[in-house]
Design brief:
This protein has 441 residues and is an alpha+beta fold. It has helices at residues 8-17, 38-57, 73-79, 81-84, 106-111, 152-157, 159-166, 211-228, 276-285, 311-322, 359-370, 384-394, 404-409, 427-438, and strands at residues 20-22, 34-36, 62-64, 86-91, 98-100, 125-128, 132-135, 143-146, 172-181, 196-206, 236-240, 252-260, 263-274, 291-292, 299-300, 303-310, 323-327, 333-337, 348-352, 376-378, 398-402, 411-416, 422-426. The two termini are 22 Å apart. It binds glycyl-adenosine-5'-phosphate.
Length: 441
Amino acid sequence: MARLESFEKLVSLSKRRGFVFQSSEIYGGINACYDYGPLGVELKRNVKQAWWNAMTREYDNIVGLDAAILMHPKVWEASGHVGGFTDPLVDCKKCKTRFREDNLPEANMTSKECPECGGELTESRQFNLMFKTQMGAVEDTASTIYLRPETAQGIFVNFPNVVDTSRQQIPFGIAQIGKAFRNEITPGNFIFRTREFEQMEMQFFVNPDQADEWFETWMERRKAFYDTIGINPDNLRFHEHGPDELAHYARAAFDVEYKFPIGWSELEGIHNRADFDLKQHAEFSGKNMSYRDPQTNQVYTPFIIETSAGCDRTTLAVMCEAYEEETLEDGSVRTVMHFHPKLAPIKVAILPLVKKGGLKELATEIKDDLKRHFNVFYDEKGAIGRRYRRMDEAGTPYCVTIDFDTLEDNAVTVRDRDSMDQIRVPIAELQAWLAERILTS
Ligand code: GAP
C-alpha cells in the first residue's frame, strides 16, 4: 500500500470532505490556525475518547482533571516558562521574514544573509513563545497573564487538591485534555505545528525510588496505545534525548516519533520530570507540595513521569496512516481513508438504492434505529457507486444499502470499506452485527 508522500493531498481531501479548514478562511485565513469541520471534529473527538479511555478508564489509579486555561502568572515563573520558554529568533531587515536561528542554514548564519531575499539579518534574540494577555477591565492596572503553553502545570498545581479529595495514593496519575497556545516562530506543515493546539497529558506521581521502573512501564503502555488506534508499529519509533537535548526539567526523555510525510517527527514526549515541578511550585507558592505515605509515614516530594501527546498531531498521524489511493481492478483509482472503526467519524452510511417504492421510508426507519447506537449518515442522492466513493473518502467502515430485495427478504446489503465485499445481513441482526465490528474492534 503506497504511503502518503506529502501533506498536499491530505490538505485537499480535508477541505473537500470537511475534515479541516483554514481558520477565518473568508478573510484570507490566519497563519497556523485551523478549524475542524464536520468530519474532523468527530475524528478528533474519537481520538480524544480513545486516549481518555486508555488513560483513565483502564486504570483505577488515574483520575481526570479539566483545569482553566488562564492561570496565576506566578505559575509560569515557577515552571520556568517566563524566563526560559524561548526560541532564538532572527529577522530579515529587508523582507521582514522571521527565522528560528537554529533552523537557518549554516552559511546564512555566518554570512548574516536572508535565505529568502539575500537581505541583512538582525542579531539573534530570544523570543518568548507564550501569548500574553491582560486580565481586568482597566488596561493600566490589569495584570499580565498568559494563555497556557502546556496543560501540565494545571495538573501540578492541583496535586494537593487531588490527593485530598480523590483517595488516590502514590503511585497515581492525573490526566487532562485541553488547549495550549504557543506563538511558534516557524509553524507549519498543516496541523503539525500550530499556534493553538490541544494536548493530551498524563502526569504520574511516583515514589522517587520507583521512577525509573514507571518510566519504562509508561513507554510500553504508550507504545501499545498507538497500536490500538491503528498506527502501524513500523511507522513509530522512540527517540531518546541525549544530555544536550534534555529540557531543563527532565532527567530522562523519549520522543515518540511518527513517520510523517515530512519525515520522522515528534508525536508525544515521555519524560521523567523528577521532583522539579512540585518543588518549584512549593517554593513559589509557599504551599506544601510533598506527600506523606499513609503506610510508611515517609514524607517526600514525588517524582513525575509525564506522557504528553499532541491531539492534533495524533489526529494528523491517524489521517496519514489511513490515507490510500487504491488502484482498482478496472484501473480506476479510489481514495479511501482506512480509519480504525473506533476512530471513524461516521460509522455507518444508510443508502437507499432509490428514493421510490418505499425504500426511502424503510431506510429512514433503519437509520433512526441505528443512530441511537452509532454516528450514522443518511444519503439518498446520486448513483450508488458515487455514494460509496464519498463514504470511502470519509473513512466510513460500513455502507448499508436498502434495495427492492429488502422489501422481500428483510435483509440489507452491507459493504465493507476496506475489502469492498458485500454481504446480506437481516435487518433484525444489523445493529448487533455492526456493534460487534465497530465497538469491539
Ligand atoms: N508538558 C510537556 C510538553 O508540553 P512538549 O514536547 O513541548 O512537552 C508535547 O509538547 C506535545 O504537544 C508534542 O509532542 C506535540 O505533540 C504537541 N505540540 C507541541 N507544540 C505543538 C504545536 N505548536 N502544534 C501542535 N502540537 C504541538
